[in-house]
Amino acid sequence: MNHLSLLVPAFAWVLALSAQETAAPSPKPAAPGKQQPAPPPPKLVLEAATDRASAIYAPGEEVTFTIQGMLGGAPAAGLSVTCVLSKDGIEPRPPREVRLEGGKATLTATLDEPGFLQLRVRGGGVTALAAAAFDPEKLRPSMPVPDDFDTFWQEQKMALAAVPAKAELTPRPVQNPGVELFDVQVDCAGGAPVSGYLARPTDAAPKSLPAILTVHGAGVRSASTGVLSWAVREGGMLALDINAHGIPNGQPDAFYDALAAGGLKDYRARGRENRDQVYFKGMFLRVIRALDFLTARPEWDGRTLIVYGSSQGGFQAFAAAGLDARVTFICAGVPAGCDHTGMKAGRVCGWPKLAALDENGTPMPASLEAARYFDCVNFAARARCRGAAVTVGFIDTTCPPSSVYAAWNALTVPKTLHADPLAGHTNTPAATAFMQAAALAHVRAMRAR
């Protein structure tokens, strides 16, 4: 059964910015003849919201957006704001100037197709966003799966299998005597190893532990020793956190900063004109090799294998579910990599924007074709895991909800969705709690089998 979890919105997230956000401390009395410093300008806050808690409507149904402005804690009466409606950030309608009478105004609009109607409000150097969903569960992938999608990935997995999964484990110090931590390096195809931290309960018995692989969002960083927290949950877990690039762990920040500015700068677009050279191919092969490593551990219970991540980590989780039948559950928060070809259906696509656009905004054929082999919508359709938990934010401009729903709707396995009308590209505390609870519930369900 599919389930939908919705938060009740008040007003959408606010960007209230001025050069001085907080009041300065009370100034000392000025010396005779010196002028007192001017007080800071009053803080402007803009908020926008739909008239329905769920923010979900039927195509053609009207939504009323309420816009509210507060200046220095009082209604911003008479403030003029510019309002732009769009299809989730693209195809903007002509801007409308709206005056906030008594600090409030309303705007009514609709969308006559499945998708998201986004409202962007600007005034006084401040921006607010709100969005209404129109039949989002009818959004479908913008292009069909390539005919040789499965053949392509089978060839990549065969190349991976030809590389022995030689692993090197180096113990790392921990304060809790009940757990062990290791730096892990595992040989992999693609030129970089799996690089991560493995945590497990001390003296774990053979075949006793469910396994979880945690994967990273965009950026360049070490694997996280935070994986220790998973090792002590639900009676003990075999937990592996890997960095996204197969780079050394535990280095000074300057090491990762240099990579981000140099060898890994803009890695998201690397090789995107050729499916064999797309950067994410190596990343996904490292995910599969990490699963090889976990399932070869004597402590693994032989049943439970979870992949957990957000943004780019959600991208990897979808890929794992679509490429590896050993995966039993995924948690994908605000996933990237969804519906790369959305522009072919008049929709926005999400990060990493694999399909490059020319100066006219037209997708370039080579990258458009290559992107289809790395799309969550196609991985989702091939998932055979026992369940999936996904989060989406209605005002996410990095991984827009139109793209996430296209992948969510392609999942045919039991699934639950945490939809937050107020969230941008983040996992709110409620979304994080939802994902963690889903993963732990899966562990309990598998142990009860």
Q: What features would you describe in this structure?
A:
With 449 residues, this protein is α/β, with parallel strands linked by helices. It folds into 2 domains: 7-21 and 34-135, Macroglobulin (MG2) domain (Immunoglobulin-like); 149-448, 3-Layer(aba) Sandwich (Rossmann fold). 22% of the residues lie in helices and 28% in strands. The chain contains 9 helices and 20 strands. It has a 10-stranded mixed β-sheet, sandwiched between helices. It starts with a strand and ends with a helix. Mean pLDDT is 93; it is low at 1-27.
The strands making up the biggest β-sheet line up spatially as: 1-20-19-18-17-15-16-14-13-12
Compute the number of helices. 9
Gap between N and C termini: 19 Å
Strand portion = 25-35%
CATH C-level of the largest domain: Alpha Beta
The CATH architecture of the largest domain can be named as 3-Layer(aba) Sandwich
